[in-house]
Amino acid sequence: MSGLVLKLAPNERVLINGAVIENGDRRTKIAIKTPNVNVLRLRDAIHPDNVRTPVSRACYIAQLMLSGDAEPTQGRQQLLLAIEQLSQVFEDRDSRILLADATAAAIDGNAYQAMRKLRDLLPREARLFAASRQ
After folding, report:
1. What region does 17 belong to: left with phi over 0, alpha with psi -120 to 50, or beta?
2. 67, 80: one domain
3. What is the Cα–Cα distance from 117 to 66, expressed in whole angstroms?
4. Spatial contact of 23 and 9, defined as CB atoms under 8 Å apart
5. Are residues 91 and 113 in the same domain?
6. Looking at the whole model, is its pTM more than 0.70?
């Protein structure tokens, strides 16, 4: 079992199964050997006040699942619903691939991978909103 390897910057914080862990003054690597551990780098976390768009809402649902603030079954259903709604807007091939990957990850219960794929849609969403304002 290889596990997950986190490379942390000095003083970087990470949430592991609901516990906030802060790195010391030096870069470090942490190997997590236990499967199905919920890990979230706090630098990647979305603050609730910044959840203003459909993609950021979907990312936030995945984040709540990772932090343990959402019940897994209910969170998965909400995440899949959010992804389905996004699939009605994002019609280009690359976005469809990201949404398909996010869906597969959500179905497998891998909220982290789903969030990673959804985060890749944030710049595309920003461009769509910018284009609609012109």
Report:
1. left
2. yes
3. 15
4. yes
5. yes
6. yes
Residues 66 and 101 in one domain: yes
Q: How far apart are alpha carbons 27 and 29 in whole angstroms?
A: 7
d(Cα 19, Cα 130) in Å, to the nearest integer?
Answer: 38
Are 52 and 36 members of one domain? no
Question: Which has more confidence, 37 or 28?
Answer: 28
Which strands form 19-22's sheet, in the order they lie side by side? 19-22, 13-16, 39-41
Single-letter amino acid, residue 59: C
Number of separate domains in the chain: 2
Which residue range(s) make up the domain with 112? 47-133
Angle made by CA atoms 43, 124, 90, in degrees to the nearest 5: 120
